[in-house]
Amino acid sequence: MHSPLVPITTGADSARTNEVGPFRVTYARFPAGGVIPPHTHDRACLAIMLRGSFDLRFPGKQAVDCQQGSTTLEPLGDTHANYIGNGGAEVLVLQPDATEESMQPLAGFLDGHRHLADPGLVVLARRILSELRAPDEVSMLAVEGLALELLAASSRVGKSESRGARAHPGWLKRAADILHAEFASRLSLAGIAREVDVHPVHFTRTFRAHYRCSPGEFVRRRRLEWAAERLLGSDDSIAAIAIQAGFTDQSHFTRRFRRHTGTTPQHWRRTHGRPLPLNGSPDRP
User: How many domains does the chain have?
Assistant: First the structure.
């Protein structure tokens, strides 16, 4: 018996979809405790969990726990059920048209199941939402570019995690865990290398080979991504968040934040602190 083919918005209490270039881009909010019985979609779905959570359950396979900040790829025609968490779910979904020539380099990525945990993907998803919240004459062009960037970045993260699962030495994971947990501290390469018992030069080279960035870049990105979530999840002042994240002051933080997200901390908090309007009209202050 075939599972029904349903739109990605099935079960949502509010949703908005835009057709942009080779993408169908959907922002949707799902009510707490909702269940969407086994079904399939007409395209592969790359889903970025912005808030809340849900479980993806596949026949004969282990369920996937999709928490806030995770990115999940469901291939075309894949049968699954959704069980929405107690806090509901807010999600951005990209559905690329696999027949488009621009999608051909990503065919292998789109054919498989993926469950990724990279905060940088969430930042790109929120930049797409920024364009959808306050559209102008070039917003759809910007959304298409960001969607391509998000899909390419997801493919790279997927490849990196696959290689890492096979080849990451244990000490490298310990080092990454230290950088991830202690991002706001005054860290040194020598200190971390000593902690995991490797030479600093070997540490730096191996880290870059596996994570595609230096340890310093890893920490800076972690600080910015933590601050981006803190801006939305607390009433702390921007200056306080800057210090908590490890920046020297608010102006230093603002410069780095704008470079990373394309907007200021003030604008990020103002535009992402409430749901996207679903009628296509821009937000009002």
Answer: 2
- Is the domain of 192 the same as that of 264? yes
User: What three-state secondary structure class fits 85?
Assistant: strand
For residue 101 the two structure tokens come to: 């020539």
221 vs 227: CA distance, rounded Å: 10
CA distance 94 to 83: 20
Long-range pairs, 9-18, Cβ under 8 A, ≥24: 10/36, 10/39, 11/35, 11/36, 11/82, 11/84, 14/275, 14/278, 15/278, 16/132, 16/276, 16/278, 16/280, 18/132, 18/140, 18/143
Q: What is the pLDDT of residues 30-59, one digit of tens each?
A: 999 999 999 999 999 999 999 899 998 988
Question: Could you tell me if residue 73 is inside a domain?
Answer: yes
- Whether residues 173 and 128 share a domain: the answer is no
Q: Are residues 84 and 139 in the same domain?
A: yes
Domain extent, residue 69, equals 14-164
Does any domain span residue 1? no
Q: What does the chain come to in residues?
A: 285
Query: Residue 1: is its pLDDT beyond 80?
Result: no
The pTM of the full predicted model, rounded to 2 decimals, is 0.68
The reply to whether 106 and 184 lie within a common domain is: no
Closest CA to 56 of 30, 25, 27: 30
Task: Output the six-digit token pair for 235.
Answer: 């009433």
pLDDT digits (tens, 9 = 90+) for 76-135: 888 999 999 999 999 999 999 988 888 888 888 888 888 888 878 888 898 898 888 878
CATH number of the domain that residue 238 is part of:
1.10.10.60
Residue 185 scores a pLDDT above 50: yes
